[in-house]
């Protein structure tokens, strides 16, 4: 008998690569998307909600609920770092899409996460594609959340490589380092996919041409919004291609065999010039003194990725 699809909630800040990940999820029979929760990051939360509703309308999946998330960081910070220079002012490549018809549900993202985890203990995977504020709030609101949630597969961190905000920090962790530290030390089953992984997974200029010449609904839509993302990568990284951050993370939740992992405690620097830095203790050395990593729960951190297989899955599923 076929196994039941894995239930996933995508916590998202759409965002061009978020749009790709959401469409991929909807084209992946291995998973069932039971909701989207929204967060600031690539755009402000209000726009993230609007874009999430819009993307579900494009996909014809208005049956999937959207729950709006936090507008401020875990410590109530309102000075947010928004990556509109990566995704366009509208978050979706400046395409002037009409506003969505739908509305978010009454339940907040945090309540949705807590209640779904409680109702389906051990059965739900959260795929977290933005700053981790909503997830940290869920951990703090319900002492059982970390136990009830099946797994958290998150895009975040830059393990042993430079960040993309500055040499220390990756954008999602930099967006709310306090939240990230709460999540990493929560005891939940976590798989972190950092930019040490996603910078190996590139959708090339010729892949984009294949998308452009496809008649597929998602391929056509993405061709339009990807323009801005390609031009940013050309500018910032001098490459004719884009990093598949969110799609790689989503696919790691769909098929864990796409990555290999190491395990250990992860702590996040929350202040100073290295604010947002993620440091994994790989347990290869016993330290003489008690450290901030001692007795902290282990998480999985992806260390290798089968990049050709990820790109092929992305192309096959988005072209169809
Ligand atoms: O240079 C950048 N600065 C800020 N955010 C970025 C940059 N490049 C990509 N992203 C966005 O941040 C997440 C991965 O860190 C992804 O959502 C990506 O679209």
UniProtKB/TrEMBL annotation:
GO MF terms listed in the record are: inosine nucleosidase activity; protein heterodimerization activity; uridine nucleosidase activity
Q: Which GO terms describe its cellular component?
A: cytosol
Q: Which GO terms describe its biological process?
A: purine nucleoside catabolic process; ribonucleoside catabolic process
Q: Name the protein family.
A: Belongs to the IUNH family.
Asked if Calcium is a keyword of the record, the answer is no
Subcellular location, principal: cytoplasm
- Which reaction equation describes what this protein catalyses? uridine + H2O = D-ribose + uracil; inosine + H2O = hypoxanthine + D-ribose; xanthosine + H2O = D-ribose + xanthine
Which Gene3D superfamilies does its entry note? Ribonucleoside hydrolase-like (3.90.245.10)
Keyword Cytoplasm present in the record's keywords: the answer is: yes
Q: What is the lineage of its organism?
A: Eukaryota, Viridiplantae, Streptophyta, Embryophyta, Tracheophyta
Q: PANTHER family annotated for this entry?
A: INOSINE-URIDINE PREFERRING NUCLEOSIDE HYDROLASE, URIDINE NUCLEOSIDASE
Name the chain's protein. Answer: Inosine nucleosidase
Output the superkingdom of the source species: Eukaryota
Name the Pfam families on file.
IU_nuc_hydro
Identify the residues that the record assigns to the Inosine/uridine-preferring nucleoside hydrolase domain, covering every copy.
8-311
What keyword terms does UniProt attach to this protein? Cytoplasm, Glycosidase, Hydrolase
Q: What is its EC number?
A: 3.2.2.2, 3.2.2.3
- What is the top EC class of this enzyme, as a single word? hydrolase
Q: Which cell locations does it reside in?
A: Cytoplasm
């Amino acid at each position: 008998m076929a196994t039941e699809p894995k239930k996933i909630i995508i916590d998202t800040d759409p965002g061009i690569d978020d749009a790709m990940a959401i469409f991929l999820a909807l084209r992946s029979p291995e998973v069932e998307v039971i909701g989207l929760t929204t967060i600031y990051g690539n755009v402000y939360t209000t726009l993230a909600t609007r874009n999430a509703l819009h993307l579900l309308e494009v996909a014809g999946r208005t049956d999937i609920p959207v729950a709006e998330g936090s507008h401020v960081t875990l410590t109530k910070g309102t000075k947010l770092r928004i990556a509109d220079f990566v995704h366009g002012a509208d978050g979706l490549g400046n395409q002037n899409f009409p506003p969505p018809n739908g509305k978010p549900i009454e339940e907040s993202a945090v309540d949705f996460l807590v209640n779904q985890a409680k109702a389906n203990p051990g059965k739900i995977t959260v795929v977290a594609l933005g700053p981790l504020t909503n997830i940290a709030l869920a951990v703090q609101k319900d002492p059982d959340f970390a136990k009830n949630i099946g797994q958290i597969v998150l895009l975040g961190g830059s393990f042993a490589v430079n960040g993309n905000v500055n040499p220390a920090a990756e954008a999602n962790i930099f967006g709310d380092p306090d939240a990230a530290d709460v999540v990493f030390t929560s005891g939940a089953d976590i798989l972190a996919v950092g930019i040490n992984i996603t910078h190996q997974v590139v959708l090339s200029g010729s892949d984009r041409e294949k998308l452009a010449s496809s008649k597929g609904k998602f391929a056509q839509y993405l061709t339009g919004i990807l323009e801005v993302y390609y031009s940013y990568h050309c500018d910032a990284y001098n490459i004719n291609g884009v990093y598949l951050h969110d799609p790689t993370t989503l696919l790691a939740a769909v098929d864990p065999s796409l990555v290999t992992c190491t395990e250990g405690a992860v702590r996040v620097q929350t202040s100073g010039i290295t604010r947002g830095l993620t440091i994994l203790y790989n347990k290869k050395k016993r330290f003489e003194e008690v450290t901030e990593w001692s007795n902290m729960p282990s998480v999985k951190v992806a260390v290798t990725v089968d990049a050709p297989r990820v790109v092929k899955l992305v192309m096959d599923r988005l072209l169809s």
